[in-house]
UniProtKB/TrEMBL annotation:
It comes from Aquibacillus koreensis. Pfam families: Ala_racemase_N (PF01168). The modification N6-(pyridoxal phosphate)lysine is found at K35. Keywords: Pyridoxal phosphate. SUPFAM superfamilies: PLP-binding barrel (SSF51419). This is Pyridoxal phosphate homeostasis protein. One of its GO terms (molecular function) is pyridoxal phosphate binding. The lineage of its organism: Bacteria, Bacillati, Bacillota, Bacilli, Bacillales. NCBIfam families: YggS family pyridoxal phosphate-dependent enzyme.
Length: 225
């Protein structure tokens, strides 16, 4: 596993796609998802120049945080988050990608000692198995968040359905972008909503074509064991 080579190949893809769809490649942030791998492997990622790391479980996050936080790292929590665990990580993370209910917002707001940048997670495809708000609920939910002054809605996040059909994947990314545009258009102070967290190892090219600003890459970058 050559993390450096994997990173270069992904960066090359970002350049190629951005050129093709006329986007600035600097808008696309790579979040290195380290949930499958060891601290050593995660360290290789930092050495290769990836300074935004993502974890989806509290235990894995704490392990990586304790070992690696002396490095310059921005920490993204990308998994579903139980309210009772918020207090353990809230002062350590920089971004939460999975804000999807009011009770969680309330807990974040109560525990945070600084403003937390949040992505609201949307279940665009409507699959039962997925976390996230229904698209129809997003406007009202984000409006309600203005009462929580420690929460800043920086963007929307989704996971595409696990299907072969590229059109279905593309459609879910596009739907998220249009929703983001609507929210952004409202110019709410607590919800600038500039960002789109979408795209993983198998679908990041499509996500970038559709406007992703934060791609969350695990296996293609660091492997999966
Ligand atoms: C694991 C995970 C990823 C990365 O998955 P890969 O397919 O390995 O790139 C991205 N986003 C979330 C929410 C994840 O849980």
């Amino acid at each position: 596993m050559d993390v450096q080579a994997n990173l270069q190949s992904i960066q090359q893809d970002i350049l190629e796609v951005c050129q093709r769809v006329n986007r600035n490649p600097k808008e696309v942030n790579i979040i290195g998802v380290t949930k499958y791998v060891t601290i050593e492997r995660a360290m290789q990622l930092i050495d290769a120049g990836v300074h935004q790391l993502g974890e989806n479980r509290l235990e894995g996050f704490m392990e990586k945080y304790n070992a690696l936080s002396s490095n310059e790292v921005k920490w993204h929590f990308i998994g579903s988050l139980q309210s009772r665990k918020v207090k353990d990580l809230i002062d350590k993370i920089d971004y939460i990608h999975s804000l999807d209910r009011k009770s969680l917002a309330k807990e974040i707001n109560k525990r945070a000692t600084k403003t937390i940048s949040c992505f609201v997670q949307v279940n665009v495809s409507g699959e039962d198995s997925k976390h996230g708000l229904d698209s129809k609920e997003v406007h009202t939910f984000i409006e309600q968040l203005q009462d929580f002054n420690q929460i800043r809605v920086v963007g929307l996040m989704t996971m595409a359905p696990f299907v072969e059909d590229e059109n279905i994947i593309r459609n879910s990314f596009r739907t998220l972008r249009l929703l983001r545009d609507e929210i952004k258009e409202k110019k709410m102070e607590h919800a600038p909503c500039n960002y789109l967290s979408m795209g993983m190892s198998n679908d990041y090219r499509i996500a970038i074509e559709e406007g992703a600003t934060h791609i969350r890459i695990g296996s293609k970058l660091v492997g999966s064991m």
